[in-house]
Write a structure and sequence with these properties.
- With 398 residues, the protein is mostly beta strands.
- It has a single domain (2-396), classed as Methylamine Dehydrogenase, Chain H.
- The chain has strands spanning 2-5, 18-24, 28-36, 47-55, 62-68, 72-77, 85-92, 98-106, 110-116, 123-128, 133-139, 145-152, 172-173, 179-184, 189-195, 201-208, 215-221, 232-238, 243-250, 258-266, 278-284, 290-296, 301-303, 314-316, 318-324, 330-337, 343-348, 354-359, 364-370, 377-385, 390-396.
- The strands form 8 sheets. Strands 1-30-29-28-27 form a 5-stranded antiparallel sheet, with no helix packed on it. The protein has a 4-stranded antiparallel sheet with strand order 4-3-2-31, with no helix packed on it. A 4-stranded antiparallel sheet has the order 5-6-7-8, with no helix packed on it.
- The radius of gyration is 20 Å and the shape is globular.
- The two termini are 26 Å apart.
- Pfam families: Lactonase.
- Keywords: Isomerase, Signal.
- InterPro entries: Cycloisomerase_2, Lactonase_7-beta_prop, N2O_reductase_N, WD40/YVTN_repeat-like_dom_sf.
- This is Putative isomerase YbhE.
């Protein structure tokens, strides 16, 4: 693995370090230490990366990471090379390295995990892409899991080749903490479930997506992060149509969720969509003012090589930023480089001053400077290469 850190003149020993966890289809979860620099202001900070450790206790194909209480990291294994997949719990040690707590088999193809019903019968829900399924597990605060339910779906093939069957692609919890949503790329729906005190799921009316659009991921938003039931919005990113659709969300007295479509936008601003482009991740910035999404499989930038001894330029896909109005309307702001090919996942640090991008086909993670006030993404700060096909990246600032 190679690490290239840029803009190091501003590094200072007083700067506190945080860790970066990177999942890869190489069968690894890597810990990298990020040491921020002190520039002229917080947005001029530089960064240095240092390799800490590699863990191989998340199966053959780690695809998703999420933090739990008590310094525990959940890692989902998609299970390409094995009859079953798995969900794994790892203890985060003081130095950032990981120690296995438990591994439990699942049905094939989990790609996302979401905690729900926190308390005595707390649980985690998994979305399974290749198995066309949802699974749930009861969990304890010390990272122990036990199987709860499996739901497998069938549907006629959709109009796109990727829609030969249902493909659950994400699990998310609504702001009230009462409903789970599962975008299904293959069936063009967002499935909705409620759950009881024992964490068992009950199907509710789904959100129907446009035919052939392939809903992949989604994120909730509310002005001032109030999440009043009368002021909640859902932004859904569609992999196959490469569109974001926004909905006003309401909670009818009869139960479930209702969705009113408000807006549909492309992910390239005024540009036409490049042939073959595929949307991936979508998040809301920590200050609640911006939506960011990633575009894969379409080179729109060419960058200098982070290795100063290598003159070969780097083709780059893109990250798109939208402003959010108080009425949930999105306005295109900018298109920025991801730092490589196929940005499957990305994340912001707590104050929004850095963005880390996992470029799957480039086998790297790139950290970029970001102006948290304006939302604009700036200079490349550091690059870690040779990680295999990177699938997920998280800042650990706790």
């Amino acid at each position: 693995m190679a690490i290239h850190s840029l803009l190091l003149a501003a590094l200072a020993s007083s700067a506190s370090a945080v860790n970066l966890y990177v999942a890869s289809y190489a069968g690894t979860v890597s810990t990298l230490q990020v040491t921020p620099g002190l520039g002229e202001d917080v947005y001029a900070a530089s960064a240095a990366l240092r390799f800490i450790s590699t863990n191989k206790d998340c199966g053959s194909a780690p695809s998703w990471l999420t933090f739990a209480e008590n310094r525990i990291l959940y890692c989902v294994d998609e299970g390409f090379a094995t009859p079953n997949a798995s969900v794994n719990t790892l203890k985060i040690n003081a130095d950032g390295s990981l120690t296995k707590i438990q591994s439990i088999d699942t049905i094939q193809g989990p790609v996302s995990a979401q905690f729900y019903n926190d308390g005595k019968n707390g649980a985690v829900a998994l979305a399974h892409y290749s198995a066309s399924a949802i699974s749930t597990f009861l969990r304890t605060r010390d990272g122990r899991l036990s199987p709860l339910e499996n739901f497998t779906f069938t549907a006629p093939p959709g109009p796109r080749p990727e829609q030969e069957k249902p493909h659950e692609h994400q699990a998310i919890l609504d702001p009230t903490g009462k409903f789970l949503l599962f975008p299904d790329l293959g069936a063009d729906v967002v499935r909705v479930y409620s759950f009881d005190s024992n964490s068992k799921l009950k199907e509710q009316k789904s959100l129907q997506a446009p035919t052939g659009s392939g809903p992949r991921h989604a994120v909730f938003w509310s002005p001032k992060q109030s999440y009043s039931k009368s002021d909640i919005y859902l932004f859904v990113i569609h992999e196959l149509s490469n569109r974001i659709i926004s909905y006003a969300v309401s909670y009818p007295s009869a139960g479930g969720l209702e969705f009113k479509k408000l807006q549909e936008l492309g992910l390239y601003g005024d540009r036409a969509d490049p042939v073959g482009t595929r949307a991936a991740e979508i998040i809301v910035s920590p200050d609640n003012n911006f939506v960011l999404a990633s575009n894969r499989n379409a080179t729109v930038f060419t960058l200098p090589n982070p290795d100063p001894s290598n003159s070969t330029q780097i083709p780059s896909d893109s990250i798109v930023t939208f402003n959010i109005s108080q009425k949930g309307e999105l306005t295109f702001q900018e298109l920025s480089p991801s730092g490589g090919s196929f940005p499957r996942h990305f994340t912001l640090n707590k104050d929004g001053s850095q963005i880390a991008v996992a470029n799957q086909n480039s086998g790297n993670v790139v950290i970029w400077k970001r102006d948290a006030k304006t939302g604009k993404i700036g200079d490349r700060l550091a690059t870690a290469e040779g990680l295999g096909q990177t699938t997920n990246v998280l800042f650990d600032e706790s």
